[in-house]
């Protein structure tokens, strides 16, 4: 596709359930980021993948959060035993690498609501 | 501490009027500064990017300025349109590191007819 896509666009789940969020980056982009955007807050970095390197997981808020990227393309963010404070928009972004000025292209996000 | 602060938090203006959004940052070592527009239900889209040596950058009715000495940036919107209603996010990059972006909390702009 032409841009970053994410699915589902909206997800409502009950507290305690597990959820999986999917990101399809722009073809050829080796770097992929996950962010969380809570109401009234700035984007919060979660995790970063770069090629075959070990991911930077420094932003994951707890061990209930995990992510993987298969084949250097599609990524899945998994939240186990969801809590109400997990409710937010989860954004995925991808970019080419080489310099820090390369733009991140964002997907439309997945709005997660935990009831 | 690397921080990006934006003001105002929200702004309502009449269609056709101009407005200016502010961004102050304490990010170092500075690489570049971007303004993003985020429509409701969408991901952010880049409007402008400025490096240390650039003072101003325009994109249509959007003009961004950068004062690297005072670490301030502004986004000026001219002749606002209803479609300008969105959140505007200031993002500052540092030169190194994987997690090299620092995001402001955004200014929510509403343009009313």
Q: Tell me about the largest β-sheet of chain A.
A: 6 strands, mixed
**Unreliable runs of chain B:** none
Number of separate strands of chain B: 11
Mean pLDDT of chain B: 92
| First and last CA, distance of chain B | 41 Å
DSSP helix fraction of chain A: under 10%
The topology string of helices and strands of chain B comes to: EEEEEEEEEEE
**With helices defined by DSSP (H or I, 4 residues minimum), what is the helix count of chain A?**
0
How many individual helices of chain B? 0
Series of secondary-structure elements of chain A, N-terminal to C-terminal:
EEEEEEEEEE
Enumerate the spans of chain A where pLDDT stays under 50 for 5 or more consecutive residues.
Answer: none
State the helical fraction of chain B. Answer: under 10%
Strand content of chain B: over 45%
**Integer-rounded radius of gyration of chain B:** 14 Å
Tell me, briefly, the overall form of chain B. globular
Q: Distance between termini of chain A?
A: 33 Å
Helix-strand category of chain B: mainly beta
List the SSEs and their pairings.
The complex is a heterodimer of chains A (about 120) and B (about 110).
Chain A: E1 5-7, E2 10-13, E3 19-24, E4 31-37, E5 43-50, E6 65-69, E7 75-79, E8 88-95, E9 105-106, E10 110-114
Parallel strand pairs in A: 2-10
Antiparallel strand pairs in A: 1-3, 3-7, 4-5, 4-8, 6-7, 8-9, 8-10
Chain B: E1 4-7, E2 10-14, E3 19-25, E4 30-38, E5 45-51, E6 56-59, E7 62-67, E8 72-77, E9 86-94, E10 101-103, E11 107-112
Parallel strand pairs in B: 2-11
Antiparallel strand pairs in B: 1-3, 3-8, 4-5, 4-9, 6-7, 7-8, 9-10, 9-11
């Amino acid at each position: 596709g032409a841009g970053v896509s994410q699915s589902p666009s909206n997800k409502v789940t009950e507290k305690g359930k597990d959820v999986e969020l999917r990101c399809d980056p722009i073809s050829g982009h080796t770097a992929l980021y996950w962010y969380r955007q809570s109401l009234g807050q700035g984007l919060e970095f979660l995790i970063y993948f770069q090629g075959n390197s070990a991911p930077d997981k420094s932003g994951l808020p707890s061990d209930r959060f995990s992510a993987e990227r298969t084949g250097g393309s599609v990524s899945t963010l998994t939240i186990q035993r969801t809590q109400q404070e997990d409710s937010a928009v989860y954004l995925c972004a991808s970019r080419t690498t080489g310099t820090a000025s390369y733009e991140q292209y964002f997907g439309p996000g997945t709005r997660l609501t935990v009831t | 501490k690397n921080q990006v602060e934006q003001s105002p938090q929200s702004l309502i203006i009449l269609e056709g009027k101009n407005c200016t959004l502010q961004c102050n940052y304490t990010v170092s070592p500075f690489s570049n500064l971007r303004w993003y527009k985020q429509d409701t239900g969408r991901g952010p889209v880049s409007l402008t990017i400025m490096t240390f040596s650039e003072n101003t950058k325009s994109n249509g009715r959007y003009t961004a300025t950068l004062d690297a000495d005072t670490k301030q940036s502004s986004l000026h919107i001219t002749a606002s349109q209803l479609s300008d209603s969105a959140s505007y996010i200031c993002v500052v990059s540092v030169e190194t590191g994987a997690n090299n972006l620092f995001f402001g909390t955004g200014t929510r702009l509403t343009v009313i007819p």
